[in-house]
Each structure stands twice: as C-alpha cells, then as structure tokens.
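Reading a protein record of the kind used here takes only a little practice. These numbers are not coordinates but entries in a learned vocabulary of local backbone shapes. Here is one such record, which you should read through line by line.
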Amino acid sequence: MQVAIEVPADDITKQMQVVAAEAFANAAKRYQYAELLSIEDAAAFVGCTVTTFKAQFINAGLRVATFSPKLKRVRKTELLEFIKEHE
C-alpha cells in the first residue's frame, strides 16, 4: 500500500535548513570544550604523525599535562602559541 503525500517544496527546504542548523549547533557544543587534546589529536591537528609530533613539538619544549602514564594532554591554546613562536 502506498500513500501519496504532497508537500510544498518550500516546506521541505525550510525543514532541511532547520535540521542542518540544529546539527551544526549540536556539533559546536560537543567540541567547544576541546581545549585539551590527546597527543594523537594534537598530531592530527597540526598534520603530522605522533612520532613527529613528539620529536618536533614535545621534545622542543611544548608543555604536556601528564595525568597518568597513558593520559597526556596538550592545551590547544599552548599548541597554537608554540606554533606562532616557531614560525
């Protein structure tokens, strides 16, 4: 059984825009607190491997917060500042 429903194109477009705006707002909320990056995320952020990140950034003085041997984080603001200082 099929039911045909006609919906004006303008309504669908408006609904799609509302849904898209809500999706982007939710994504922004999820990532607004991403000030602390894992070593892997920090390496991806600057576009290099973890090995290169450790050698070129951490060994060059970038501060790393160590909460446990497996839980290390880099502040995004400090990473950006470090990059500016080494341009």
Summary: The chain is about 55% helix and 15% strand. The chain has a mean pLDDT of 86. Residues 36-85 form one domain. The first strand starts at residue 36 and ends at 38.
